[in-house]
Specification:
Strand order of the largest sheet: 5-4-14-15-16-13-17
Number of domains: 2
CATH class of the largest domain: Alpha Beta
CATH superfamily of the largest domain: FAD/NAD(P)-binding domain
Shape: globular
Structural class: alpha+beta
Radius of gyration: 21 Å
Largest sheet: 7 strands, mixed
Number of strands: 23
Distance between the termini: 18 Å
Helix content: 25-40%
Number of helices: 11
């Protein structure tokens, strides 16, 4: 967001709560939506050099080996793909670009509140007042303290299931470097391996390894010991030994908690809200970072074309409304089939959904759902999707307008 604003000629300051800017988390998939935004920013080649191209998502039942999920990007529109990256890679590409633009970043600043009038003033945790400014953009995540400035703050509804995550060394034996692979035990256990390329140039290739569980059960799992947990993982998915063997302690695993929340209107007086602060959900559809990138592009487009800030905020909210709502609803609907205590839903998933998913137009719909394009997110924000052409190096075969 700061890159877009600085390049448009605005004076920009980023307030960062960490003492040193750094990434948080393991891996994610940049979908055609997010990749199109990075192409527009001129950063596509940088991220392609670090990530791992993903052509399909494949999931199987742990006990029978039956295919439960098989989504291929090219089923919806030829040559699309995802790009799995370590969060540090995406962070690094964007942070280095911000440094090149000499964007002001103040670290160790916790923003507690916002005062608005003709202009806006930020209230910091130390009592310091920053401003006045013409516009505040809240990108502070799902636990935002500034949402009340939009009049409909709400709080994320905690989802029952989260996950243990770890970033581990990539092991190719039995694993596809161009696929997200998952194993399921009903809907209560989901094990996944996602190749995520390199966190930075010159580093070794890595994979994101995850195991779904209820955060409420995390302490009891830890109490039974890491060896017992590893034995269970390998029993369900023997090939995962290549990754589980790299884990010696629960200290290597991060516990992710998920919540669902969608703001009715992600704007307020002199305030725009983007990313997880405006809409958070389960990562089951892999849309979080991509939705945030689209938000940034949409807000930039609105500010460039509107006659004043108020008109720009209205245009931004309108441009993102239906894409956000539809994908939030799809994520909420699909997550229980893969992460829940239900017995019926995984039965339906394994028998009915897996069969129907092979019959057109279901493969095309699933591909567009994963790609983030069930409805066109680009037209309303003044974009055209990157052109996905044949080629060995997709970085040289894509253009965006």
């Amino acid at each position: 967001m700061a890159l877009y604003l600085k390049r448009a000629g605005h004076r920009v300051t980023v307030f960062e709560r960490f003492d040193e800017p750094k990434p948080v988390g393991s891996g994610l998939i940049l979908q055609p939506t997010g990749l199109t935004v990075l192409a527009d920013l001129g950063l596509l080649d940088d991220i392609l050099a670090l990530g791992s191209r993903i052509d399909r998502l494949h999931g199987a039942d742990a006990s029978t080996g039956r295919t439960v999920l098989d989504v291929r990007y090219d089923a919806q529109r030829g040559h699309r793909f995802g790009l799995a990256v370590h969060r540090a890679a995406l962070f690094g590409v964007l942070f280095r670009a911000a440094q090149r633009e000499a964007i002001t970043i103040e670290t160790g600043v916790e923003i507690e509140a916002l005062e608005t009038g003709e202009r806006a003033t930020l209230i910091c945790g130390t009592g310091r007042r920053a401003g006045p400014v013409d516009l505040v953009i809240d990108a502070s995540g799902s636990r935002s303290k500034l949402r009340q400035g939009a009049g409909n703050p709400g709080e994320p509804r905690a989802l029952t299931y989260g996950a243990f995550w770890a970033s581990l060394g990539w092991r190719a034996e039995g694993f596809d470097e161009h696929a997200l692979l998952q194993r399921y035990d009903k809907a209560s256990v989901m094990i996944g391996v996602l190749p995520i390329g390199r966190p930075e140039p010159g580093a070794e290739k890595m994979a994101a390894f995850f195991w779904s569980l209820k955060p409420a059960d995390a302490d009891s799992v830890r109490a039974r010991g890491v060896d017992g947990w590893k034995e269970r993982v390998v029993r369900l998915w023997p090939q995962s030994e290549a990754y589980v063997s790299q884990i010696d302690s629960f200290d290597q695993l991060s516990l992710a908690r998920y919540g669902h929340h969608t703001m009715k209107l992600p704007v307020g007086r002199r305030l725009a809200i983007i990313g997880d602060a405006a809409h958070s959900t389960s990562p089951q559809l892999g849309q979080g970072a991509n939705m945030a990138l689209l938000d940034a592009a949409a807000l930039s487009h609105a500010l460039a074309r509107a006659s004043n800030v108020d008109a720009a905020l209205e245009a931004y909210a309108k441009a993102r409304r239906w894409h956000v709502r539809i994908f939030q609803a799809l994520s909420l609907a699909f997550t229980p089939f893969y992460q829940s205590d239900s017995v019926a839903l995984p039965f339906i998933r394994d028998r009915l959904v897996a069969t129907v998913a092979k019959i057109p137009p279901a493969p095309q719909f699933l591909a567009s759902m994963v790609a983030g394009t069930v409805i066109d997110p680009f037209k309303r924000i003044g974009f055209a999707e990157a052109r996905w052409d044949f080629g060995q190096n997709p970085g040289h075969d894509m253009t965006a307008s």
